[in-house]
Amino acid sequence: MTTAAHEIDILGPEAIRDPSRYFSRLREEGNPVLWDTRYRSWIVTSHAAINEAIADPRFSSDRIAPFIERKLAGPDVDPAIRLAFDVLKNWMVFQDDPSHARLRRLVSKAFTPRSIANIEAAVVVKSTALAAALPKNGRFDLIAEFTYPLPVFVIAEMLGVPEENRARFKDWAEEIAPVVSGGMDDPARYDRAGAAMAELVEFFTGLLDHYAANPQDNLLTALAESRGGEEPLTQLEVLAFCTLLMFAGHETTANLISSSMLAMCQHPDQMELLRSGKVEPAKAVEEFLRWDGPGKSITRVMGEDAEFRGQHLKKGQRVFLVLAAGNRDPDVFAGPDELRLDREDAKKHLGFGGGGHFCMGASLARLETRIALPILLEALPDVRLASGVELEWQQVLNTRGLTELWLETGTGTA
Ligand code: HEM
Predict the structure, then answer these.
(1) Full-prediction pTM beyond 0.90?
(2) 387 vs 389: CA distance, rounded Å
């Protein structure tokens, strides 16, 4: 039976529980480009169509400006909130070329492969310490104890955020997330996100000034310095990149490490492949990204009317490119619904997006995950899902993440 357009619920229980299957079914049942009447958006579900849309400039990334301009239209907007939204509008992920290409080129001078490689030793030390503190005989939430603290530590170290300030990251990220990850229109969330962004902007403004006066070997110093020189970044652009990095740099990676551990607990034969060294961790990470990675969907807005794969897309309409469905497309992956850590072509996955906006932190996320997983497996020789615990997934469209991941070791009781 085919799902009628009015029955589609991309945030319904089934789509949240098992998005890969839900969106793949939509692709199998009809056109891989279909109209969702509930959210008045196009849904794109095949690997080829997603790649084509990502490369097509008519599919614009400038999707947040209209909401923000409406928000800032009144005369009595608090200047801190105005600045916060201006910063958000300047996130490169919301820009089209040529301004996107310019920004990406300039921030790449600070966020370099060397800055990522330099953090490797610290990732090993931190992962080992976090894993050693996990109970060997008991139950624990892996997200609270390991997968969340690790990426927060990594991005904070790279940026140069002092340790005492790191606890606030979680609250800020949680307030900002619905605007960035949801894609739906709830006006209240803009107010909450605006207030959180205002605090975050104030925080980074202070730190940038500090490092401009006291340079150190970290990203914030490099970004503070990039405000000068021949081709300077503006203060707004630097603040936009700091806040984007902080935001993009931790929750997605936490979700990847968590979903990889979940996948292995559900597929003990695959866990054994990684544990025994028969599969390289870096290769396994690609399959985890393909199979149930954190990049569930990315959003575009039509910059003009377009004929696309037999459908007529109108200017201003929103488009969800469902990476989770493209990653299970049988035209690209043999046996797409099987988790195979030794899969040769897993790297064709769309988990980091593609084209000009391809994730800037991909190599950092890969590095953290390929280091963390073997350390976790070694520290937890008999790890399994805690009995009697239901999995609960975040109710957002763009990312895929568990709210908690309860595991147990030993007898399962402390
Ligand atoms: C497993 C972890 C991660 C996943 C699944 C992921 C996923 C993505 C995806 C799908 C995009 C494309 C968005 C679009 O086209 O609209 C993106 C962009 C981006 N990501 Fe990641 N990301 C991850 C980790 C990171 C990390 C660790 C950082 C930085 C520390 C980062 C920084 C960025 C930035 C700056 C962009 C914007 C690139 C641009 O617009 O040119 N990401 N990410």
Answers:
(1) yes
(2) 6
